[in-house]
Amino acid sequence: MRLLRRMFGKERRSDRVDIAVDVQVEVKDGDPKQFRSEDLSATGLRMDISGVASLAELTGGYRDVGLAILIGGEDGPARVVAEPIWTRRREDGGQSSGWMFSQYVGDAKDRLDEFVDSHPGSEGA
Predict the structure, then answer these.
(1) pTM value?
(2) Residue 113: which region, alpha, beta or left (left: phi > 0; alpha: psi -120 to 50)?
């Protein structure tokens, strides 16, 4: 949380819950890649990106990247545009990356709010 405070001068805007959901990273002019989230909120997520050598390889050099968050339901994935904010190596040798959502497609914000609030560990549960 200190990093966000230093970068933006404020704390997180929404609660995160430790939940693993599939996230499809959809880079322009590239093949979609599938990853797992490590935690999720309505405004961002942290995901395990151990399957790629670097963040640049994953994003194709783009700042804004499309994500399809597979949270279930009849409406398909919640689609957002997100920006990678940080990446770090974990003690187990894997790699994690934090992403902040900058745009929501359709009702994705409402669906993510509802999904996060329905899980244990969130204030809405």
Answers:
(1) 0.81
(2) alpha
